[in-house]
Every structure is written in structure tokens, then in C-alpha cells.
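Worked example 2:
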Amino acid sequence: MAKQTFGVIVSTRSFFPSSLVKGAREGIVKVLEKLGHDYVMVGENDTEYGAVLTYDEAKTCAKLFREHQDEISGIIVVLPNFGEELGIAEAISLSKLNVPILIQACDDDFDQLDMAHRRDAFCGKISLCNNLYQRNIPFTLTKTHTCRLDSADFEEDVKKFAAVCNVVKGIRSARIAMLGARPVAFNTVRFSERSCRSMVLRSRLLISAK
């Protein structure tokens, strides 16, 4: 698989433990480095905890992504807990990258539901996806609704997502040519040159949504 560069967004909510953000940042970096991919992610000094919550932090993240728009082929969103869906949606929207998006949510640890460890990324993922859907932003889901960052399932999710990004990137630079005239006697094989571009654009959306 060709090496990819992903924009990474980690989010949280203020009343969830900040330690989960640090673990999520480290976890996604390990997965991407293991698979040979690069990443672009706000630093811990750029936003609070290195996460994206507020509109200002969304603008900071979007600016960073735009600065690397020629490198980034996809965006991976990591939810160690519920997360701020509006901050994430704004960061994606303001970046104007128009690349495939993968949404990951961490498993809830049912034996650690106290205030110091609780997550609820399960519900946060539903909320985020709803916000992206309302904005007509296509996204890709992991095989299971929640998963551990260090799991084999998520590693496979990233591999498949990288393949999707590779295809989308290839289609964007594709040029479609027609050799010869349309066959007059075979109307079943004719096509509309005018609608060809719109078909390609729709195919990009379908690919990125899978």
C-alpha cells in the first residue's frame, strides 16, 4: 500500500478526563507509524491537550490542514470519549480539503465508569456522524461502532481507509478520453459527454462514503 499522510483530529469534552486525549494521540500515532503512514495533527501547545473542542481550536486545526493540503489524502477522527462534534465538524468544514474521512470511537471500559475514567465515545460517534450528515460531508465508519486503537480490527480499518484514499486521489487526477465517434447503430452503448464530469464527481462521494 502506498504511503499516505492523514490529517488527525482528536476531540474531547471538558468534563471528561484529559488523560484520555493523551492516550488517544499516542495510540493513533503508533498505528499510523506501524503501517508506514505520516500524519498532520495539532500539537499539545497549539490547542488545549492537543484536542479540538472550540471554534477557535477548529480554526487552528483547519489552518494547519490547509497548509498541508497537498499532502493530506484523508482525515481520521479519533474519539477517546464523547468529544465535541461541532468543533470537529467545523474543523473539517473550514479546512475545505474534500478528502475521505474515517470516524473512530474508543471502547467504553465498563469496569472503569467512575469520573476519572468514563468515556461514552459510543454516543459521541453517533452525534458526530449526525452533524456531518447534516452538512453533507461524506464519512467512513470503522468495522465495529467502537474499537480499541491498538486492536487488529482498527489496524485493518486504517488499511482499508488508506486504500480508499489512494483510489480517490487517483480519480481526482484522472482524465477520461473518448476515441472515435459514438456508434450510431448501437444506442445502448452511447453516453452523455456532458454528464460525464458529474458522474465522476458522484463516484468520488460514493467511494469516500464507504
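The domain at 5-168 is CATH 3.40.50.10940 (Rossmann fold). The chain has six helices and five strands.
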